[in-house]
Write a structure and sequence with these properties.
single chain
């Protein structure tokens, strides 16, 4: 496999219909591409070149919730490319202790503004729904639909019963607070992959390659137009049917009249007490 260059990446982006002025929400895995000349910086440079001065690049910079979030120092937990992008001069980061985004370009200020004042991480007024309003695209670079954070916005819009209220450490931008309450927080496992063939059939997604990485480019407004009615009809659309999945088993019970015995999930196939999937 040859070394992938910035020009190679830019060429592939153009083949997938990325044009100047586009607004892209990127989720990525650098290692999936193969050897990249210049590493993550070359990927970021190519993305910025592709959208030009009139475009905007946005990346989820999600963090954990066991230590206080600091917008300047808390690293992105979702890949090298997002962390390299976050640390670039001029890149803005929204203020949310779990679901922050970093953005650069024409619409960056608008996208990140006010995230700290939103009642939830991915719902009304957040960067994710602003991207829908702006007609943005979600790019899954070497990752699949299960890493597409904006899918949680769909769950918020239907007020899914499995979304949680959770108290965490207060972020540093709230110096007087000790805790922060996450509302409609999306825990555990999802089967977001099952929307992929529907998006493909409805021509709401373009697929391609960058180096060895499979890439999906999803039209965000079309995603909402397609998935939201399906989710309203079946609120368990994204909940898997694996009987051994603690998270999805619990989510399904919430839509029944059955009493939930939480002892069922204690150390069930997992020894990690902080496992996001297993802890209910």
């Amino acid at each position: 496999m040859k070394t992938v260059t910035r020009d190679d990446i830019l060429y592939s982006l153009k083949l997938m219909g990325i044009r100047e002025g586009d607004i892209l929400l990127i989720h990525s895995a650098l290692s999936s591409i193969g050897e990249v000349s210049g590493g993550a910086d070359s990927v970021v440079d190519a993305l910025l070149d592709a959208v030009g001065d009139e475009g905007t690049i946005v990346m989820s910079t999600l963090t954990g919730w066991f230590t206080p979030f600091d917008a300047q120092t808390s690293p992105s937990a979702v890949g090298t490319i997002s962390e390299v992008f976050r640390r670039r001069p001029g890149v803005l980061r929204s203020l949310h202790p779990v679901h922050s985004v970093a953005a650069f370009g024409k619409h960056a200020s608008h996208i990140v503004a006010g995230h700290e004042n939103c009642p939830t991480g991915c719902g009304e007024g957040t960067p994710y729904l602003k991207l829908r309003e702006l007609g943005a695209k979600a790019m899954l670079l070497g990752v699949d639909m299960d890493r597409n954070t904006i899918m949680h916005s769909l769950e918020e819009l239907i007020d899914a019963k499995y979304l949680r209220t959770l108290d965490i450490c207060a972020p540093t931008y709230l110096p007087e607070a000790k805790t922060f309450t996450l509302k409609k927080f999306p825990p555990g496992h999802r089967d977001f992959l099952n929307i992929t063939p529907i998006l493909r059939r409805e021509e709401a997604m373009v697929e391609g390659l960058i180096g060895s990485a499979c890439v999906k480019v999803v039209d965000i407004p079309k995603l909402f137009d397609i998935a939201l009615p399906l989710l309203q009809e079946d609120p368990l659309l994204f909940i898997c049917k694996n009987k051994n999945c603690n998270s999805c088993h619990w989510s399904r019970l919430l839509y029944t009249d059955r009493e939930i015995d939480l002892s069922r999930y204690t150390h069930n196939h997992c020894s990690d007490d902080n496992c996001e999937i297993c802890v209910i």
